[in-house]
Amino acid sequence: MTTSTRWTLLALALLVVSLVARPFVGAQIARLPRPGEALPGRATPMALPRAHVVFGTPLDVTAPGAEVALFGMGCFWGAEQHFFHHPGVVSTAVGYAGGATPNATYREVCSGDTGHAEVVRVVYDPRQVSYDQLLRVFWEGHDPTQGMRQGNDFGTQYRSALYVTTEAQRVAALASRARYAAALRAAGRSGNVTTEVRAGVPFYFAEASHQQYCELNPTGYCGHGGTGVALPRTP
Asked: What pLDDT is recorded for position 29?
């Protein structure tokens, strides 16, 4: 066996080992970390901007009577702008949820070693806008059949997710998922809806540079496309 052949076989062996140990999609990790694999994180939350760019209020304060919902629909830069101009929404923030690493950094989340999804925290006045109306923004604003990706963004942090904060939200989220899956099938769209619905999921604010990114950078990367299929109204 020649030296070049040995090097070729060694390279192939290392490639197989790396793919078995941790699958990748492009440069991004395509599976969630197993128990014990997630990064440890930290106790200190991220420093936040003094005020929301659109609302002028603190990002971490919830107004009396308001409700909170978490939406994971791909890159949170573009996802947030779907909500902060919506009537009845009183605040938004981007961050990380669904994983095991407290107060993760953006770089850590992008490594795939936290298990987090990029999400938008939406604070809304239920007297002005219902959770069902926000679900319409969610479903029609992304493609929930893409698994661990969204458009050109690959990785577990871009998965579709609804992290609910009340039992009423959980019921509405599950019902809307079934309706939207049926609507996609009726429209001839292939692929299963992979959106996860979970309750009791902690939210961790992302760094200040990510908050209201598309409002501050209107020519930046803010693209977000849906399937073109509408969410059927509640029967």
From this structure: 66
CATH number of the structural domain spanning residue 209: 3.30.1060.10
Compute the distance between CA of residue 103 and CA of residue 3 in angstroms, rounded to an integer: 48
**In a domain? residue 149:** yes
Number of domains in the chain: 1
Asked about 75 being catalytic, the answer comes back as: yes
Domain that holds residue 126: 55-216
Kindly report, residue by residue over 39-63, the tens digit of the pLDDT. 999 999 999 999 999 999 999 999 9
- Do the domain assignments include residue 16? no
pTM above 0.85, yes or no: yes
pLDDT tens figures, 156-197: 999 999 999 999 999 999 999 999 999 999 999 999 999 999
Q: Is residue 206 part of a domain?
A: yes
pLDDT at 97: 98
CA nearest neighbour of 72 among 118, 109, 113: 118
- Active-site pick, 75, 110, 214, 222: 75
